[in-house]
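quick one before i forget lol
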Amino acid sequence: METITAFKRIGIEKIILAGIMIGLLCVGGAYAEEKGLANDAKALLSRAVTYYKANGRDKAFAQFNNPKGRFVHSDLYIYVIDPDGNILAHGADPKLIGQSLIDREDAAGKKFIKAIIDDTKVNNKGVMDYKWMNPQTRKIEPKRTFFERIGDVIIICGYYK
């Protein structure tokens, strides 16, 4: 009886609204956890570079290509290109392996793979911004990619900003 009186005093509509708002906050928090951030991408790239140096090309590529492996985290993954823009390993889309993306353009017409390759001729590592379709939202979004060249490969990891 006291509970019913308390509900009447507060107003059942306000209680329902509060419940809906709490539910929306929980869903938003869950999506935020699934989205990689800058520090996550940098850390994943660093781990991939360390693993590559310690274990060699074949073992590293096998790990990088494993979509359920240690080099895929939330919406982050590792991919590897050679100096000609050929995909050598890809944690999110194995169908890209063997394809040349040297002339691939982002939504604004930027040849970002070529720009990454050109940058590694001067610096062994760097950052590249471009616009790409986010597979989770299906919208063109700004993306920032971190990369590092080791010998004849460039290891890459990016996140949606």
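fyi Helices lie at 2-10, 12-34, 38-55, 57-64, 112-120.
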